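Our platform keeps sequence and structure together, in a single record for each protein. This encoding replaces a full spatial description with a residue-level series of whole-number codes. We quote a single record here, exactly as it is kept in our systems:
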Amino acid sequence: MMMLATSLLALPLSSQAETSEEKGLAIAKEVERHDDGFGDFTANLEMILKNKQGDESRRTILIQTLEVKDDGDKSLSLFGEPADVKGTAMLTFSHKRDDDDQWMFLPALSRVKRIASGNKSGSFMGSEFAFEDIGSQEVEKYNYKYLRDEDLNSRPCFVIERYPVSPHSGYKRQVVWIDKAEYRVAKIDFYDRKDSLLKTLTMDGYEKYLQKYWRAGQMLMVNRQTEKTTLLKWTQFKFKHGLKDSDFTETSLKRAR
């Protein structure tokens, strides 16, 4: 759910990225380059859902992610608590250019359900994250435009706009704040197909792993139209865990519980 990058070298931003589109693309590629080579990781995730009235529900999830050469990441999300979601599992094959492949194992039905491309904008397990937010955000999934430089929480950032290539996306555009020092995503505003502000994602509590790879400790998604929120709290990141392709199959999805 990382919301979150992989592999091409960026051109120097000052001299060769002449247009706003070229500069936006170069910044996105630099974000990807900073995360290239992590291999795989596991992490624990707490999902806290809150409605407009402030009522909360909590879920725990084990995340496994595998970096794939020349394509998007593979990820497996296994729900642990509460009891009504225990054993539910989500498998995502992200792709650079095609729509992501996604499957969900529903223990109550004891079967695997494929998520259709037309449903990518639907809610992931009742949260404010859509299915399309769950996969890795590959550079090729968007077209880009550099907007401006702007400080966010006293940190200098690039602000770029990106436009989903897939006709199945629920978004018309996204405005992304990227800190200049480490090329980490700090904030994203999501606009719906009518170009109204739909959601805002803020990411903070970053920590560095293996002396290179930054991961956010918290991701807060706020629905600006319904006032519902989903907070993701990430802990116990473990990199180079030895995961392999065989850990990310429909069979492994059923066995994950």
In short: Confidence is low (pLDDT under 50) at residues 1-15. Residues 20-34 form the longest helix (15 residues). Residues 20-255 form a domain with the outer membrane lipoprotein receptor (LolB), chain A fold (CATH 2.50.20.10).
